[in-house]
Amino acid sequence: MVIEDEPAAREIMHRYISQCPDIALLGSYDDPFSSQTFLDQNPVDLIFLDINLPGMSGVSFLRTLIKPPLVIFTTAYPQYAVDGFDLEVVDFLLKPFSFERFYKAVNKAKERFTVRSADPVNRKITVKADKMIYQIDLDDLLYIEACGDYTSVFCTDKKLITHETLKSWEEKLKGYSFQKIHRSVLINLQKVDHIDGNKAVIGKYKVIVSEAYREQLISQLLARNITRVG
Fold first, then answer.
1. Which of 18, 22, 97, 179 is 20 to 30 A off residue 9, Cα-Cα?
2. CA-CA distance, 209 to 197, in Å (whole number)?
3. What sign does the dihedral 214-217-223-227 (CA atoms) show?
4. Distance CA 174, CA 142 (A)
């Protein structure tokens, strides 16, 4: 669904959506009120929602929805990006945006669907450390740091030293909510409390974020509703 009051911008959205083989436009509206009946009566997976709308802002409208679908904000005003932190927003498209940037946002939405449909039972991994074998719940895994030929595995209740490479950890955790923030560090996005300068605060730890990975990290945190970036 598209909710956009500018005809030219709405036409661009229609064209971009028509170029994506894996999404379909169910409805297009120029204000949030006219879309409400359709939302009440039909399942909608994703809304491209303008922020500056007549009668009610896109931010306010989203807050009124009891069970909102996934949302990608669109706006010409970058200062509204902060509002994305308060809501479960997939992405923030700053006008004018290219088809490439649009399709990247669509792929983020698809990833969110994948995460939602992931098997919640299969949430443990096996770790060999200190001549023992551990079963670690992914919810207890905070971050992993490469140290030469070893990796340090930081959990909520312990720290383990393994002979696995960071690359092997990336492969093992592929498809879960883990993100590389430095060439030697992999973090659990769901455990990030906030970003403080060039550090990600994860529980009692402050982990350095490389400049090369910072923009991608913030984008991922926006999509997952992490609330503070400094």
1. 22
2. 9
3. negative
4. 15
